[in-house]
Model the fold of this input.
Amino acid sequence: MERTELIARLKEDLTPVKRSPSLTLRMGSWMVSIVIFGVVAILVSQTRADIHSVLTSPLFLIESAAILIAGTTSGIIALLLSTPGKQTRWYSMTGIGAITAWILSTIVAFSLQASDSTLASGLSFHGIACSQTVLVFAVAPALVLAALLRTGSAVSGKTAGALLLAAAGMFGMFILQFTCASSQSLHIMVYHLLPVLALGALGWYLGSYLCGFESRLRKKKAQILGQID
Amino acid sequence: MAISTTDQNMAKDEREEFRLLALKSQKGDAEAYEELLNHVYDKVQRFLIPRITSEETREDILQDVLLSVHVSLGSYSGKDSFLAWLFTITRRRLIDFLRKKHKRTVEEITDGPWFELQPAEEEMASFEHFLTQMNKLPEAKKRAVELVHLEGKSTSEAAELLEISENNLRVTLHRAVKEIKGNLKEGERSK
Done:
């Protein structure tokens, strides 16, 4: 379509726009919702029998803090991506730092635990219940974050979608820190972490639909140009 | 290459003009919106010309960008740089468009010295400095950079056009980009 005609059509289609809620408000809402969901999740779940002793373990505290920070910053970066022009560098470095800390603590724990019997028990099929728990506890944060993302314009839909579901999954993983009795690194990597990675991959694939920008663009394109991609 | 004070002031005025037009457009001011879209079109076209040689492809991307601006207008906060907002959208739509139509990887498209992580607005300014330095290169190096980094040719295609080996091309490119970056850094230091 010619420049003048396109601009004329867009001008004709213009109505006063409702500005997206401020980034600060959306980030605050995300963090508040995480706290609320966390409290509710821990109250409704049965905490692990050894909770009092693990709470004094530095490795446990590092792992839990790292998962929480990584999950929170993933959600924040997704929100930043829904506001074109915002820099994600600082949060990306924080998230990467947290993930690195978690990986290192997991490797340390694994090296301390490694033996044939721990490998076998770490991969026990009963661990599948933990994966299900990750997915169940990911639902509420995913819905909240998706709703917050849809109020913006996530032009990098795939990345935002991956971060959305990974953040939600990490929340589930964080809750499991307090409810899953297994401290075996292999169990954590297979039954806690893998669902998070799977959610991230799913989010990448579905990102355009989850974040809403692409569907709004497609509808507007069809309306203005009479074209469908 | 130093940026003069006059140029800096003009850039500030332009940024403020874009910001005000965007705010008026958000309130439904059709005339302001038309003016904004025309400025956006000119700005983005200038950004695309060195990257996309096909006029038809450029027009398609421009159309995509304008529609994206139209759909995303509510996401502009009014406080931050409109150009940073615009160029984030532009860069993303460019990558998505080329990926879809030409099945090229993001690395092939963004593997240029100016695509390193920087705010979109700075990217535009540094890209223009990049072009200035590129045009000062000896013809062989300049042509190599143009073919690979501006026209998006693969190294094998560019080597064939230049009638040199791929290895030779890679070495030429490496030296050319190093020279440009060195000149850009010298320009920064002398500011």
